[in-house]
Every structure is written in C-alpha cells, then in structure tokens.
C-alpha cells in the first residue's frame, strides 16, 4: 500500500471515529440513548458502516468524558445516573462552579472577557431559537470559557466532566424550564450577574452569583421532578 493510500485510509478512520463520537455524544446528551443502555462495538460498527477501530476510538473518548462506563466484565453502557445522587451532584457542582467563577474574576484577561461575552451571546441566540441541543452546548461552552479564564487546569478538567453530566439533566427538564419561564429572554439572562461580576473583577460577587446560579438549576430540576412524580425516579 502506498504512503498516500495509507494516509488517506488513516484520515478516513479518524474522520469516521470523530463522526461516531459526535453522533453518540449527541444521542447520550439528548437522552436518545438512555442512561444504563448497553453499547456493543460490533453493532455500532454495523450501524455506522465502519470497522470496529473507529468505534473503539469514539467509545474510548466517551469513557474519558464519563458519558460511557466500562464494567469489570468489559461490558460498555451509557453511564447511569441515579436521581437519588442528585444532591451529591449539586454539592460538587456548587463548589467547583463557585471556585472557577471566583478565579475568573481574579485572573481574567480582556481576551477572556471577550470569549465569555461571545459565548453568552451564542447561548442567548440558542435560547431565542428554542434549540435545546444548542442551548446545552452553548451553556457548557460559556461555563468552560469562564473556567478557562480562571487559569487552573485541575478545576477546568473536573468542571468539564460535571458540566457534561449536567447536560443530560438539562435535557430531562428543558420543556419544563421553557414552559415555566416568564419568557425566553428571562431564561437566557441567567448568566448576567456572573458575567458582570467577572467583568468588574469582583470575586466575592462572582462566587455569590455562581452559587445562586447553581441553586436556580437545583430549584428548577426539583420542581420538574415534583411535576413528574408518577414517573420512575431513577433513570439509571
């Protein structure tokens, strides 16, 4: 096989793996693939019309993000989420969200602020369009821009994992959020106090706003659960 052919084949595999990763990630985050559902390399390879190698690469990336779990017997499944663990999730999210937001207010540069403002504008556009998938992705991008402005790679890595889990929770109750918000604009304005405090370089106000933001998410999710008490409480 020529060098050109080898490189083309390798490129196709990388592209195929990236496509599979993006498609599976979207299906997991939007709950098309439910928590706890088993995943099989052979079936996925047949579904996507590719070899098992790019499927394996995509699954490895999803495992590293915490969206897919590998059991001791090598079984793969969409990472379960037990509703009973929600208080623990909120506790972890609250602590890390307060920390990264405080650090952003302390260390952000003008370039960081531009990225944060741009990410917030993209989120507002998604809210206005009523695009749930775009809302969850742009919300994550905004919070990651804030974390990156804080300049602590350990916090950034852990925060990204928590936000990924949070995307699935958002999709569980997006309809509820939109239907109970006074308007799409009020929903989109959730981040104003955080961004303004970061711009003002006020770490105390930034941390306070981040905590209130987490509590708002908690309040909305618990209200959603109350409205859906007849459903099974565990999605794992």
Structure commentary:
Residues 14-81 form the HTH gntR-type domain. The chain has a three-stranded antiparallel sheet with strand order 1-3-2. It has two domains: 3-78, Winged helix-like DNA-binding domain superfamily/Winged helix DNA-binding domain (Arc Repressor Mutant, subunit A, Orthogonal Bundle), CATH 1.10.10.10; 83-227, Four Helix Bundle (Hemerythrin (Met), subunit A). The model is unreliable at 1-14 (pLDDT under 50). It has helices at 3-29, 41-48, 52-64, 86-107, 110-129, 132-149, 153-180, 184-188, 192-199, 203-227; strands spanning 38-39, 68-70, 76-78. A hairpin with a 5-residue loop joins strand 2 and strand 3. The protein contains ten helices and three strands; from the N terminus they run αβααββααααααα. With 236 residues, the protein is mostly helical.
In whole angstroms, the N-to-C terminal distance is 47 Å
Residue stretches low in confidence (pLDDT < 50, at least 5 long) are 1-14
Q: Mean pLDDT across all residues, rounded?
A: 86
> How many domain units?
2
H and E order: HEHHEEHHHHHHH
Helix percent band: over 70%
Rg measurement, Å: 20 Å
In total, the number of strands is 3
| Proper CATH architecture of the largest domain | Up-down Bundle
The CATH class of the largest domain, by name, is Mainly Alpha
- Counting DSSP H or I runs of 4 or more residues, the number of helices is 10
What overall form do the CA principal axes indicate? globular
**What portion of the residues fall into strands of 2 or more residues?**
under 5%
